[in-house]
Amino acid sequence: MANSRSSALFQVPDSLLWLNKKEAGASWLEALPDIFEAACQTFGLTCIGRPYSGGCVSYVVPARRNDEAVVLKLQFQHRESECEADALKHWDGNGAVRLLDHAPDIGALLLETCDPGRFLADDPEPDKIGVMADLLRRLLVPAGKPFRTLAGEAALWLEALEGDWESAGKPCDHYLVDVARAALKDLIADDNGEVLLHQDLHGHNVLSSSREAWLAIDPKPLVGDPAFALSPIVRSFEFGHSKEAAMYRLDRLSEELELDRERARLWTIGQAMAWAFDSSYSERHFEMVRWLMAD
Hints:
42% of the residues lie in helices and 14% in strands. The protein has 295 residues and is an alpha+beta fold.
């Protein structure tokens, strides 16, 4: 049975309130207390903790199931995260947080606890790019269905770029849109990759753990060209936001992992522009594209 205090403890973090701007998001937030109760009952959770504050599309809280420390994650349903549970099952804890249970009808995942749970981005000690390279060696594994393809996702980016630029108030020079569209067209036409991709592998989606030194979370999975896997890391400004730092990440990772540097560069341009117009860090995306164009 769920902890009888779970309703009293329920609270929506400020990081989720932006969803009220979307009709589907507002509906999900309204239903979230009931979804939370249903998940607690389904998984038999007790000792519900306070929600983590960082997530902007999921409600995540620590809890216990019997004598085991666990994490409950309730997802706002979106195409980017719809196969997260499948990806975590596929990796089975090898480089990524382990999935313990799943209730797909309510969008609920039960995950292992990452302890001590430091973000890689915030830890001054490790060789951060070395950590990312080690994770990618384990995460880039063959996969197929049910995952969406990188080519299909990139086609959506390509179709939306012009309208997104206009809707955002034309916040950058149009040639950046043109460059991204050209890159995506070429990449889509020649993407025959079939590896599982974590399309948001940045420094705040990697946590320290007692089971392994570092584990990836929040995969937003796709299947496609392994060179794309470098894109979120190259864009990861918490590892240093300068042309020199970005090029270092691109050069080192492509060499160590024996991935096509030029395709990784073009994928980074495409994803950076596709994600720029709905980001709080849009100008950093634009700067990244300018640096990559000048390479």
